Amino acid sequence: MADVSRRGLFGAGAGAVAGVGLAASVGLARPSAQAEAAGVSGQTYSPFGAHQAGVTTPTPAAARLMALDLRAEVDRAALGRLMRVWSTDIAALMAGRPAAGDTLPDMALGGVSLSVLVGLGPRVFELDGLRQRTPVGFQEIPAMRHDRLTDAYSGGDLLLWISADDFTTVAYAARRLVHDAAPWADLRWSQQGSWRGIGKDGQPATGRNLFGQVDGTGNPRGEALDRAVWSEDGWLTGGTQLVVRRIEMDLDEWDRLIRHEQERAIGRDLATGAPLTGGDEQTPLDFAVLRDGEPVIADNAHSRLAHPDHNRGRTMYRRGLNYADDTGSGLIFCAFQSDISKQFIPVQRVLDDFDALNEWTTAVGSAVFVIPPGMREGGYLAQGLLE
Ligand code: HEM
What we know:
It contains ten helices and 13 strands. It is α+β, with helices and mostly antiparallel strands. Helix 3 runs antiparallel to helix 4.
């Protein structure tokens, strides 16, 4: 994981004091010193290391994903130049320093949990000499019955996923990086989302999607997380593969359901995220329990169908974001895995056929990216692929 330094903007003590006034005046739980210590807010992540920051680092409140398309004339060498420029920018921005030539240097801040994750889309592997270096299992998502995809949120040759504690920092970094890519690439789509990884009591919590569900509980942890996510495939070792699906959620219809129906669709308690078979959020789901001859976790419940027990042990690491804008409301579903063809795609096929949630969810965007490993100091992103 990327190194975390505690060089916060104010330091933990002063930051906590600054938060007290706000909490007292509006009566909200503030991100606590514990939330900060657990990495949910107020962090400075290192841009260097085996992995890029922004994969398994905690999800801060604000994020923007941007896909760019390479200009037709860009070849492997030109892509290398762009990666060097971005890597230098990212190393500065994440450390809280302005990038070279920055016209707004006063906006650079440390201690705001900024991470910039860079990804490579399928067309990169059509460039000169790169086809045979396409990572195993990296492919586009085949059409699913419930998809209603639009170009507005699909595809892309490059990805920038910028996360921070606030949207001002995200907008600042986004503008700089898109500007500096201009000789080689143009913006294709941009989507903004947020996540609240801090619970009612100000402590780190799993977070909720816009259906009100606790979302992220079943994510693998520890060694299982490492096995699910990190690639050991040649130049990509320490990197991963990412699926981004913009999934529209029909909140009006969802709101018409009674709570029991909402819980039945997922197989978990809405208030706590615990399985309907009992326990707390982290209690394993028990698919065998019956009530009146019927499974308590329904056959078409999302938690059952997506579970590794029903997918030959397949897992992935989900790191979604909620969106609500002029286009609608939903989830920017993001899942990391070492092999898209063996992890996301088979699970998605099962869900497309049987998932209860299909009644209220529709994928409207789809994109896939290879996420290169982290860079070393003095090096650049995707160096192992491009040099
Ligand atoms: C679990 C919501 C789409 C894969 C869950 C859970 C919720 C949820 C509330 C239970 C808590 C948890 O374990 O995180 C949603 C919503 C979706 C959506 C609202 C669409 C808007 C998808 C898609 C996939 C997926 C497209 C993959 C193809 C999973 C997996 C789990 C899960 C693997 C964990 C199962 C386990 O190990 O227990 N989802 N999900 N979800 N979901 Fe989704």
